[in-house]
Hints:
The chain contains 13 helices and ten strands. It is an alpha/beta fold. The two termini are about 35 Å apart.
Amino acid sequence: MHKLIQKTMVSYKELGLVNTREMFAKAVNGGYAIPAFNFNNMEQLQAIVMAAVETKSPVILQVSKGARNYANQTLLRYMAEGAVGYAKEMGCEHPEIVLHLDHGDSFELCKSCIDMGFSSVMIDGSALPYEENVALTKKVVEYAHQYDVTVEGELGVLAGVEDEVAAEESHYTKPEEVVDFVTKTGCDSLAISIGTSHGAFKFTPEQCTVDPETGRLLPPPLAFDVLEGVEKQLPGFPIVLHGSSSVPQEEVDTINANGGCLKAAVGIPEEQLRKAAKSAVCKINIDSDSRLAMTAAIRKTLAEKPAEFDPRKYLGPARDNMKKLYIHKIVNVLGSDNKLIH
Ligand code: G3H
Ligand code: 13P
Ligand code: ZN
Protein backbone atom coordinates (compact mmCIF):
# COMPACT_ATOMS: atom_id res chain seq x y z
CA MET A 1 0.00 0.00 0.00
CA HIS A 2 2.72 2.43 1.01
CA LYS A 3 4.58 1.70 -2.23
CA LEU A 4 1.44 2.50 -4.21
CA ILE A 5 1.09 6.02 -2.84
CA GLN A 6 4.80 6.68 -3.17
CA LYS A 7 4.54 6.69 -6.96
CA THR A 8 5.99 10.15 -7.62
CA MET A 9 3.24 11.62 -9.74
CA VAL A 10 -0.09 10.69 -11.17
CA SER A 11 -1.59 12.53 -14.12
CA TYR A 12 -5.29 13.31 -14.00
CA LYS A 13 -5.47 11.95 -17.54
CA GLU A 14 -4.65 8.48 -16.22
CA LEU A 15 -7.62 8.84 -13.85
CA GLY A 16 -10.07 9.68 -16.66
CA LEU A 17 -10.50 13.29 -15.48
CA VAL A 18 -10.44 16.38 -17.70
CA ASN A 19 -9.23 19.95 -17.20
CA THR A 20 -11.55 22.96 -17.53
CA ARG A 21 -10.30 24.46 -20.80
CA GLU A 22 -12.69 22.94 -23.31
CA MET A 23 -15.75 22.89 -21.03
CA PHE A 24 -15.31 26.57 -20.12
CA ALA A 25 -14.96 27.65 -23.76
CA LYS A 26 -18.16 25.79 -24.57
CA ALA A 27 -19.99 27.19 -21.55
CA VAL A 28 -19.03 30.80 -22.30
CA ASN A 29 -20.19 30.44 -25.90
CA GLY A 30 -23.31 28.52 -24.93
CA GLY A 31 -24.50 30.91 -22.21
CA TYR A 32 -24.51 28.46 -19.31
CA ALA A 33 -22.27 27.68 -16.32
CA ILE A 34 -20.55 24.52 -15.10
CA PRO A 35 -21.49 23.47 -11.56
CA ALA A 36 -18.60 23.36 -9.09
CA PHE A 37 -19.81 21.35 -6.11
CA ASN A 38 -17.62 20.82 -3.03
CA PHE A 39 -17.36 17.35 -1.59
CA ASN A 40 -15.96 15.93 1.65
CA ASN A 41 -17.48 12.46 1.84
CA MET A 42 -18.86 9.56 -0.14
CA GLU A 43 -22.54 10.52 0.02
CA GLN A 44 -21.89 13.98 -1.40
CA LEU A 45 -19.74 12.51 -4.15
CA GLN A 46 -22.36 9.87 -5.04
CA ALA A 47 -25.09 12.51 -5.18
CA ILE A 48 -23.01 14.82 -7.39
CA VAL A 49 -22.06 12.07 -9.83
CA MET A 50 -25.61 10.68 -10.01
CA ALA A 51 -26.98 14.19 -10.67
CA ALA A 52 -24.37 14.93 -13.36
CA VAL A 53 -24.95 11.60 -15.12
CA GLU A 54 -28.75 11.82 -15.02
CA THR A 55 -28.70 15.34 -16.45
CA LYS A 56 -25.79 14.69 -18.86
CA SER A 57 -23.87 17.60 -17.37
CA PRO A 58 -20.15 18.23 -17.08
CA VAL A 59 -19.19 18.74 -13.44
CA ILE A 60 -16.39 20.11 -11.29
CA LEU A 61 -15.67 18.23 -8.06
CA GLN A 62 -14.17 20.73 -5.66
CA VAL A 63 -11.90 19.89 -2.76
CA SER A 64 -10.96 22.57 -0.25
CA LYS A 65 -7.86 22.44 1.93
CA GLY A 66 -10.22 21.59 4.81
CA ALA A 67 -11.81 18.75 2.81
CA ARG A 68 -8.38 17.38 2.01
CA ASN A 69 -7.49 17.36 5.69
CA TYR A 70 -10.86 15.86 6.62
CA ALA A 71 -11.07 13.08 4.07
CA ASN A 72 -7.36 12.37 3.45
CA GLN A 73 -5.64 13.39 0.23
CA THR A 74 -4.97 9.85 -0.96
CA LEU A 75 -8.51 8.70 -0.37
CA LEU A 76 -9.87 11.76 -2.19
CA ARG A 77 -7.76 11.08 -5.25
CA TYR A 78 -9.08 7.52 -5.43
CA MET A 79 -12.62 8.75 -4.81
CA ALA A 80 -12.30 11.05 -7.83
CA GLU A 81 -11.00 8.18 -9.93
CA GLY A 82 -13.89 6.13 -8.58
CA ALA A 83 -16.31 8.88 -9.61
CA VAL A 84 -15.26 8.44 -13.24
CA GLY A 85 -15.75 4.66 -13.04
CA TYR A 86 -19.08 5.11 -11.28
CA ALA A 87 -20.33 7.52 -13.97
CA LYS A 88 -19.36 5.02 -16.68
CA GLU A 89 -21.04 2.21 -14.79
CA MET A 90 -24.22 4.30 -14.79
CA GLY A 91 -24.07 4.48 -18.58
CA CYS A 92 -22.21 7.73 -19.20
CA GLU A 93 -19.62 6.73 -21.79
CA HIS A 94 -17.59 9.95 -21.72
CA PRO A 95 -18.06 11.70 -18.40
CA GLU A 96 -16.51 15.17 -18.11
CA ILE A 97 -15.36 15.36 -14.53
CA VAL A 98 -12.82 17.87 -13.21
CA LEU A 99 -11.04 17.41 -9.89
CA HIS A 100 -10.36 20.95 -8.67
CA LEU A 101 -8.57 22.40 -5.66
CA ASP A 102 -10.78 25.09 -4.14
CA HIS A 103 -9.04 28.11 -2.56
CA GLY A 104 -5.48 26.84 -2.73
CA ASP A 105 -3.47 29.14 -0.48
CA SER A 106 0.12 28.27 -1.39
CA PHE A 107 2.26 27.11 -4.28
CA GLU A 108 3.14 23.95 -2.31
CA LEU A 109 -0.51 22.94 -1.84
CA CYS A 110 -1.28 23.51 -5.53
CA LYS A 111 1.79 21.52 -6.57
CA SER A 112 0.90 18.66 -4.24
CA CYS A 113 -2.63 18.48 -5.71
CA ILE A 114 -1.33 18.61 -9.28
CA ASP A 115 1.15 15.84 -8.46
CA MET A 116 -1.68 13.72 -7.01
CA GLY A 117 -4.01 13.87 -10.00
CA PHE A 118 -5.99 17.10 -9.78
CA SER A 119 -6.89 18.45 -13.20
CA SER A 120 -7.49 22.04 -12.07
CA VAL A 121 -6.39 24.21 -9.16
CA MET A 122 -7.38 27.55 -7.74
CA ILE A 123 -4.66 29.74 -6.29
CA ASP A 124 -6.39 32.28 -4.13
CA GLY A 125 -4.07 35.23 -3.68
CA SER A 126 -6.95 37.67 -3.42
CA ALA A 127 -6.06 38.77 0.09
CA LEU A 128 -2.46 39.56 -0.93
CA PRO A 129 -1.21 42.90 -2.26
CA TYR A 130 -1.78 42.99 -6.03
CA GLU A 131 1.82 42.34 -7.15
CA GLU A 132 2.18 39.42 -4.72
CA ASN A 133 -1.06 37.90 -6.02
CA VAL A 134 0.31 38.24 -9.57
CA ALA A 135 3.64 36.62 -8.66
CA LEU A 136 2.09 33.69 -6.77
CA THR A 137 -0.54 33.01 -9.42
CA LYS A 138 2.08 33.13 -12.18
CA LYS A 139 4.26 30.63 -10.32
CA VAL A 140 1.36 28.20 -9.98
CA VAL A 141 0.39 28.64 -13.64
CA GLU A 142 3.95 27.93 -14.80
CA TYR A 143 4.00 24.66 -12.87
CA ALA A 144 0.43 23.61 -13.68
CA HIS A 145 0.65 24.23 -17.41
CA GLN A 146 3.58 21.83 -17.75
CA TYR A 147 1.02 19.12 -16.94
CA ASP A 148 -1.92 20.66 -18.80
CA VAL A 149 -3.63 21.45 -15.50
CA THR A 150 -5.79 24.60 -15.62
CA VAL A 151 -5.57 27.39 -13.04
CA GLU A 152 -8.18 29.70 -11.53
CA GLY A 153 -6.96 32.99 -10.07
CA GLU A 154 -8.90 35.52 -8.02
CA LEU A 155 -9.03 39.30 -8.03
CA GLY A 156 -11.17 41.23 -5.57
CA VAL A 157 -12.02 40.13 -2.05
CA LEU A 158 -15.03 37.99 -1.24
CA ALA A 159 -16.12 39.04 2.18
CA GLY A 160 -18.03 37.36 4.95
CA VAL A 161 -20.48 39.09 7.25
CA GLU A 162 -18.21 38.24 10.14
CA ASP A 163 -15.61 40.76 9.10
CA GLU A 164 -18.21 43.45 8.51
CA VAL A 165 -17.32 44.12 4.90
CA ALA A 166 -19.94 41.94 3.20
CA ALA A 167 -20.88 43.19 -0.23
CA GLU A 168 -18.82 46.33 0.17
CA GLU A 169 -18.07 47.97 -3.14
CA SER A 170 -14.49 48.75 -2.15
CA HIS A 171 -13.75 45.01 -2.26
CA TYR A 172 -15.27 44.36 -5.66
CA THR A 173 -12.97 43.36 -8.50
CA LYS A 174 -11.62 46.40 -10.33
CA PRO A 175 -12.34 45.89 -14.04
CA GLU A 176 -9.35 48.08 -14.92
CA GLU A 177 -7.00 45.49 -13.31
CA VAL A 178 -8.20 42.28 -14.93
CA VAL A 179 -6.36 42.48 -18.27
CA ASP A 180 -3.05 43.14 -16.55
CA PHE A 181 -3.66 40.28 -14.10
CA VAL A 182 -4.65 37.72 -16.71
CA THR A 183 -1.85 38.74 -19.08
CA LYS A 184 0.86 38.68 -16.44
CA THR A 185 -0.24 35.44 -14.75
CA GLY A 186 -1.51 33.38 -17.70
CA CYS A 187 -4.37 32.03 -15.55
CA ASP A 188 -7.16 30.13 -17.35
CA SER A 189 -10.12 31.56 -15.45
CA LEU A 190 -10.73 34.36 -12.99
CA ALA A 191 -12.86 34.45 -9.85
CA ILE A 192 -14.29 37.91 -9.27
CA SER A 193 -16.03 39.69 -6.44
CA ILE A 194 -19.42 41.24 -7.26
CA GLY A 195 -21.20 40.90 -3.93
CA THR A 196 -21.37 37.16 -3.27
CA SER A 197 -19.76 35.68 -0.16
CA HIS A 198 -19.26 32.28 1.40
CA GLY A 199 -21.55 30.49 3.83
CA ALA A 200 -25.24 30.56 4.73
CA PHE A 201 -25.24 34.10 6.17
CA LYS A 202 -24.24 36.22 3.23
CA PHE A 203 -25.83 39.48 4.29
CA THR A 204 -26.76 41.08 7.59
CA PRO A 205 -30.50 41.74 8.12
CA GLU A 206 -29.63 45.47 7.90
CA GLN A 207 -28.36 44.99 4.33
CA CYS A 208 -31.63 43.32 3.30
CA THR A 209 -35.18 44.46 2.76
CA VAL A 210 -38.16 42.46 4.00
CA ASP A 211 -40.51 40.83 1.49
CA PRO A 212 -43.94 42.16 2.57
CA GLU A 213 -45.69 38.96 1.39
CA THR A 214 -43.48 36.30 2.96
CA GLY A 215 -41.64 38.24 5.64
CA ARG A 216 -38.37 36.80 4.25
CA LEU A 217 -35.16 38.81 3.96
CA LEU A 218 -34.38 39.98 0.42
CA PRO A 219 -30.68 40.61 -0.20
CA PRO A 220 -29.27 43.49 -2.24
CA PRO A 221 -28.62 42.69 -5.92
CA LEU A 222 -25.22 41.57 -7.22
CA ALA A 223 -23.03 44.19 -8.91
CA PHE A 224 -23.78 43.25 -12.51
CA ASP A 225 -22.19 46.52 -13.64
CA VAL A 226 -18.84 45.23 -12.33
CA LEU A 227 -19.35 41.91 -14.15
CA GLU A 228 -20.15 43.79 -17.37
CA GLY A 229 -17.04 45.93 -16.88
CA VAL A 230 -14.92 42.77 -16.54
CA GLU A 231 -16.53 41.20 -19.62
CA LYS A 232 -15.76 44.31 -21.66
CA GLN A 233 -12.12 44.17 -20.67
CA LEU A 234 -11.80 40.42 -21.24
CA PRO A 235 -14.28 39.36 -23.92
CA GLY A 236 -14.97 35.63 -23.80
CA PHE A 237 -12.63 34.97 -20.86
CA PRO A 238 -13.98 32.43 -18.32
CA ILE A 239 -15.24 34.10 -15.15
CA VAL A 240 -15.96 32.28 -11.87
CA LEU A 241 -18.45 33.09 -9.13
CA HIS A 242 -17.74 31.85 -5.62
CA GLY A 243 -20.19 32.06 -2.75
CA SER A 244 -23.18 31.23 -4.95
CA SER A 245 -25.41 29.24 -2.65
CA SER A 246 -29.01 30.40 -2.54
CA VAL A 247 -29.70 29.09 0.98
CA PRO A 248 -33.07 27.44 0.20
CA GLN A 249 -35.55 28.58 2.83
CA GLU A 250 -37.32 25.20 2.91
CA GLU A 251 -34.08 23.51 4.01
CA VAL A 252 -33.46 26.19 6.64
CA ASP A 253 -37.06 25.76 7.86
CA THR A 254 -36.67 21.96 8.05
CA ILE A 255 -33.47 22.35 10.05
CA ASN A 256 -35.10 24.83 12.44
CA ALA A 257 -38.25 22.71 12.79
CA ASN A 258 -36.18 19.72 13.82
CA GLY A 259 -33.98 21.11 16.55
CA GLY A 260 -31.67 23.36 14.54
CA CYS A 261 -31.10 27.05 15.03
CA LEU A 262 -30.23 28.94 11.86
CA LYS A 263 -31.34 32.52 12.19
CA ALA A 264 -31.36 35.09 9.37
CA ALA A 265 -29.70 32.77 6.85
CA VAL A 266 -29.67 34.50 3.44
CA GLY A 267 -28.22 33.49 0.08
CA ILE A 268 -28.07 34.69 -3.52
CA PRO A 269 -31.49 34.58 -5.24
CA GLU A 270 -31.55 32.02 -8.04
CA GLU A 271 -32.76 34.47 -10.67
CA GLN A 272 -29.53 36.43 -10.20
CA LEU A 273 -27.45 33.29 -10.66
CA ARG A 274 -29.46 32.40 -13.76
CA LYS A 275 -28.61 35.81 -15.19
CA ALA A 276 -24.92 35.39 -14.27
CA ALA A 277 -24.80 31.91 -15.85
CA LYS A 278 -25.86 33.38 -19.19
CA SER A 279 -22.88 35.77 -19.15
CA ALA A 280 -19.13 35.03 -19.19
CA VAL A 281 -19.59 33.41 -15.78
CA CYS A 282 -18.90 29.79 -16.64
CA LYS A 283 -18.25 28.25 -13.21
CA ILE A 284 -20.56 28.67 -10.23
CA ASN A 285 -19.42 27.42 -6.81
CA ILE A 286 -21.96 25.83 -4.49
CA ASP A 287 -21.16 24.26 -1.15
CA SER A 288 -23.40 25.64 1.60
CA ASP A 289 -26.65 24.58 -0.12
CA SER A 290 -25.45 20.98 -0.14
CA ARG A 291 -24.56 21.22 3.55
CA LEU A 292 -28.05 22.55 4.28
CA ALA A 293 -29.75 19.82 2.22
CA MET A 294 -27.74 17.14 3.99
CA THR A 295 -28.31 18.53 7.48
CA ALA A 296 -32.04 19.08 6.88
CA ALA A 297 -32.58 15.46 5.79
CA ILE A 298 -30.53 14.04 8.65
CA ARG A 299 -32.29 16.16 11.28
CA LYS A 300 -35.73 15.32 9.89
CA THR A 301 -35.04 11.58 9.72
CA LEU A 302 -33.62 11.40 13.21
CA ALA A 303 -36.46 13.52 14.63
CA GLU A 304 -39.05 11.27 12.99
CA LYS A 305 -37.25 8.02 13.91
CA PRO A 306 -35.51 8.62 17.22
CA ALA A 307 -34.68 4.93 17.60
CA GLU A 308 -32.76 4.79 14.31
CA PHE A 309 -29.03 4.31 14.59
CA ASP A 310 -28.03 2.73 11.28
CA PRO A 311 -26.16 5.59 9.53
CA ARG A 312 -27.38 4.39 6.13
CA LYS A 313 -30.94 5.14 7.24
CA TYR A 314 -30.22 8.85 7.66
CA LEU A 315 -27.30 9.31 5.25
CA GLY A 316 -29.40 7.70 2.49
CA PRO A 317 -32.16 10.35 2.70
CA ALA A 318 -29.43 13.00 2.99
CA ARG A 319 -27.88 11.73 -0.24
CA ASP A 320 -31.29 11.74 -1.97
CA ASN A 321 -31.94 15.31 -0.86
CA MET A 322 -28.53 16.50 -2.07
CA LYS A 323 -29.04 14.76 -5.42
CA LYS A 324 -32.37 16.56 -5.82
CA LEU A 325 -30.66 19.86 -5.06
CA TYR A 326 -27.81 19.25 -7.54
CA ILE A 327 -30.24 18.31 -10.30
CA HIS A 328 -32.26 21.43 -9.60
CA LYS A 329 -29.13 23.62 -9.80
CA ILE A 330 -27.94 22.00 -13.03
CA VAL A 331 -31.29 22.11 -14.84
CA ASN A 332 -33.02 25.19 -13.44
CA VAL A 333 -30.20 27.54 -12.52
CA LEU A 334 -26.94 26.86 -14.37
CA GLY A 335 -28.31 25.30 -17.56
CA SER A 336 -25.46 22.78 -17.93
CA ASP A 337 -27.75 19.79 -18.64
CA ASN A 338 -27.25 17.95 -21.93
CA LYS A 339 -23.92 19.69 -22.52
CA LEU A 340 -21.52 16.74 -22.60
CA ILE A 341 -19.25 17.07 -25.62
CA HIS A 342 -19.40 13.41 -26.68
O1 G3H B 1 -15.14 28.32 -0.08
C1 G3H B 1 -15.22 27.55 0.86
C2 G3H B 1 -15.88 26.25 0.67
O2 G3H B 1 -17.23 26.31 1.00
C3 G3H B 1 -15.14 25.18 1.41
O3 G3H B 1 -15.33 25.30 2.77
O4 G3H B 1 -13.05 25.26 3.77
O5 G3H B 1 -15.10 24.62 5.10
O6 G3H B 1 -14.23 23.11 3.28
P1 G3H B 1 -14.38 24.52 3.79
P1 13P C 1 -21.19 28.89 -0.83
O1 13P C 1 -20.75 28.98 0.61
O2 13P C 1 -22.07 30.04 -1.20
O3 13P C 1 -21.78 27.58 -1.16
O4 13P C 1 -19.86 29.06 -1.73
C1 13P C 1 -19.00 27.97 -1.97
C2 13P C 1 -17.73 28.37 -2.60
O5 13P C 1 -17.54 29.46 -3.10
C3 13P C 1 -16.66 27.37 -2.62
O6 13P C 1 -15.47 27.88 -3.13
ZN1 ZN D 1 -15.14 29.93 -2.68
